[in-house]
Amino acid sequence: MDDRGDRDGLRDAELVTGGDLAAGGTGPGGHRVLLSIWERLVELDVARRYHLSPAAGHVVHHAMTINRPADEGTTNVAHNQDLASAYELIYTVAAGKDYQREAYDITDLIRQRNPTADSLLDVACGTGLHLSHFRHSFAHVEGLELAEPMRKAAIDRLDGITVHAGDMRDFRLTRRFSAVTCLFSSIGYARSVEELNQTVDCLAAHLEPGGVLLLEPWFTPNQWISGPVDTGTAADGRRHLTRMCVSHQNGTTSTLTMHYLLGETGTGIRHWSEEHTLTLFTDEQYRQAIRQAGLHDVQWLPGWGDLRPRISAVKRRRARFTAPHSGPAPRP
């Protein structure tokens, strides 16, 4: 028996009452992507998965570790600002990402699948660079971000837009949306197939019937390349940033170790390192998670600058109930 209707009803009740969301259960063939680490990092959101503790030093949260010298003299607030500044310098200056074009392309993809879409939730929204453009295409937009320095930067940028604090695996909001996006490979921070299923189920629960989910996945095991060291630099006249990164692989786990040097006139040079751990899920694992969440019309779409795709899917609309015929039986 098909239980999609029961699952949709459960999600409806949970979004209204604040109960626990239903969790998940326990693509096309991959071309090997010959990209440098730097090219991969263009699609990686630098500081998604952490909160900083009050003490300096070694900070661990989910799939992200941050190390900074305990005696470097910077306050926790200042270091939080460094993280958000580094994120934006790397992507808007060094990588030259065109957030406006990407937001408009994503809007077109959503409207092709849901022409009346008027609301959007961007999960793991970072500093709100995409949302700053989505707000002009949808009547209502919101964001969700786990990393508090990034969320604060998004709030500062997006006057009047709600940016929730929350984890993509288990957040609960009080409304649903015409579209839900999870960009920059943030889905790769799920640490297991179970967490992938849980995350996709949570994203789907916040879609209206007919709503569109758009994911940008992390690399598959066949696409990942370990070993080379790569460097990115950026400056905006006041700040100068250098980032060096090396990648490793252990089974289906990829690790990126990044070292930052941020120099700023009047404050000197600051250093910290980050270690990001992301899971190399297969296309089939993404496909299964999406289908288990009650979504259909799953499509693999071209990515921005490499062979890595984007994934879209649509939440099923409820079948209309037709009352049984109560008149006289038809004549034979």
Automatic annotation (TrEMBL):
Keyword terms: Methyltransferase, Transferase
Gene3D superfamilies for this protein: CAC2371-like domains, Vaccinia Virus protein VP39
InterPro entries for this protein: Methyltransf_25 (IPR041698), SAM-dependent_MTases_sf (IPR029063)
Domain Methyltransferase residue range list: 121-211
Protein name, as recorded: Methyltransferase domain-containing protein
Taxon lineage: Bacteria, Bacillati, Actinomycetota, Actinomycetes, Micromonosporales
